[in-house]
Design brief:
The chain has 295 residues and is α+β, with helices and mostly antiparallel strands. The chain has one domain: Nuclear Transport Factor 2, Chain: A (Roll), CATH 3.10.450. The protein is built from 7 helices and 14 strands. Strands 1, 8, 9, 10, 11, 12, 13 and 14 form an 8-stranded mixed β-sheet that branches. A 6-stranded mixed β-sheet has the order 3-2-7-6-5-4. Helix 1 runs antiparallel to helix 2, helix 5 packs antiparallel against helix 6 and helix 6 runs antiparallel to helix 7. It is globular and about 50 Å long.
Length: 295
């Protein structure tokens, strides 16, 4: 069945200086969301900093503001976000932040784990009021947070992408199709991953570098082309997310949400950040004994 691809392309041609200024504004927005969440609670923070079209995953994609409005009370935990890395398009209209999140129980809270940690990816868009709002927010969990590796900014020269007919939609679709071939996700990342890629997978600390990402993804084979793919592109930065379902050679079938951040470098799009937020396994793994017999 053909997928439904939503493609939006934001304005082009803003100066590098403007992009640098917008980078700081986006980083400040991430910091403000983090401060609000710690001081006033996650519900208050997300209702303030999510865009009206912001999407969160609970576990399926849903409008973030609508979901948080349905939560009658603040959660009995304190959310702390620590940004590790950020990047923004050359026109300063679209970017993302990623880092560690941590939840600890509020004083007197009962039935709440003592500490939960994970990785977050927040995609930010500059809206008509001149402020940045979160339009995608993905959170994965793992047992122990990896140490921060520092921030990095990458702003390219302004470019007229429409004139050159460069678009992230084409490589994004090719990446999805390659994930279904015999080589699976390993081959797809071998073709499209940037050398400095960050790979974030549920229950794992971040994986850094193309070589490590390809190795980690060799066990995954996409079992179906996604029915829905949402893609937003602005100058030399784009994101694409979709529901995904994989055959994991070690753990059986898995499904979840996949998010890829694409960056245009030297006339080719590369994945600079990939994320797989898993939902509970839909097929239990078949365990094998030492004799090779299935249990």
């Amino acid at each position: 069945m053909k997928s439904f691809l939503t493609v939006l392309i934001l304005g082009l041609g803003v100066s590098i200086a403007a992009g640098q200024g917008e980078f700081q504004a986006m980083v400040d927005a991430d910091g403000s969301l983090a401060s609000y969440a710690t001081e006033y609670g996650a519900k208050t923070a997300y209702l303030k900093y999510l865009g009206d079209d912001g999407v969160i995953f609970k576990p399926e994609a849903t409008n973030g503001k609508d979901w948080w409005k349905l939560q009658k009370e603040e959660l009995p935990v304190v959310l702390k976000r620590t940004m590790e890395h950020a990047d923004i398009a050359s026109n300063g209209l679209l970017g993302y932040t990623t880092g560690i999140w941590e939840e600890t129980p509020k004083p007197g809270a009962k039935g709440v784990p003592s500490k939960v940690v994970g990785q977050y990816i927040t995609v930010w868009s500059k809206k008509p009021d001149g402020k940045f709002y979160a339009i995608i927010d993905v959170m994965t969990k793992f047992d122990e947070a990896a140490p921060p590796v520092g921030r990095r900014m990458s702003i390219s020269q302004p470019m007229d992408i429409n004139k050159r007919r460069w678009s992230a939609a084409d490589p994004s679709m090719k990446f999805l199709r390659m994930g279904m071939d015999r080589g699976g996700l390993g081959s797809a990342f071998e073709e499209w991953a940037a050398e400095d890629i960050r790979l974030i997978i549920e229950e794992n600390p971040p994986i850094f570098g193309k070589k490590n990402a390809v190795k980690a993804m060799k066990k995954y084979l996409s079992v179906a082309f996604p029915r829905r793919v949402a893609l937003l592109e602005s100058a030399d930065l784009a994101y694409a997310w979709n529901p995904c379902e994989y055959a994991n050679s070690e753990e059986g079938m898995e499904k979840g949400t996949c998010l890829n951040i694409w960056k245009l470098r030297n006339k080719k799009w590369y994945i600079t950040l990939g994320a797989f937020a898993r939902v509970p396994n839909i097929v239990k793994p078949t365990l094998k004994t030492a004799a090779g017999k299935s249990n």
